[in-house]
Amino acid sequence: PGCSREASDAPERWLDVSWEHAGHEGGGGHVGRLRLHISHEPASLATVTNVIAKDGGNISNLKFVHRSTDFFEIIIDVEVRDIKHLNVIIANLRSKDVVQSTERWQG
């Protein structure tokens, strides 16, 4: 079931909705963008996402920029409380063997 043609042709049946973005536990109003190069091996992406989650960050966007037989380059937007919080996440990501490099990204 999807939107029937009848409903899409009847704007009077539409309902305007909106909601406020509530901060996630541990997250906040700031988004840090990170560029990472991670090893192309099983569970490498899980390692990255687990570090971010355990440190109280929330991933709001993830994009694979480049894939090769050896590594992935990804861009991750992470909701954090402040720059100190983001720096903790970066440091913990760098400590993982599957993370070849990570940096704040302004692109």
Q: How does the SSE layout of this entry go?
A:
Elements: H1 5-8, E1 30-39, H2 44-54, E2 58-67, E3 71-80, H3 83-94, E4 99-104
Antiparallel strand pairs: 1-3, 1-4, 2-3
Describe the structure.
By secondary structure, the chain is an alpha+beta fold. The chain is built from three helices and four strands. A four-stranded antiparallel β-sheet has the order 2-3-1-4, covered by helices on one side.
Quick rundown:
The protein has 107 residues and is α+β, with helices and mostly antiparallel strands. It has 3 helices and 4 strands, in the order αβαββαβ. Strand 2 and strand 3 form a beta hairpin.
Strand content: 25-35%
Sheet of most strands? 4 strands, antiparallel
> What is the alpha-carbon Rg in Å?
18 Å
Number of helices: 3
Distance between the termini: 39 Å
Question: Strands of the biggest beta sheet: in what spatial order?
Answer: 2-3-1-4
Secondary structure tally: strands: 4
Task: Tell me the overall shape.
Answer: globular
Instruction: Output the structural class.
Output: alpha+beta
- Arithmetic mean of pLDDT: 83
Order of helices and strands: HEHEEHE
Q: Ranges with pLDDT <50 over ≥5 residues?
A: 17-27
Fraction of helical residues: 25-40%
Question: Descriptors for this entry?
Answer:
four-stranded antiparallel sheet; single chain; 107 residues; alpha+beta
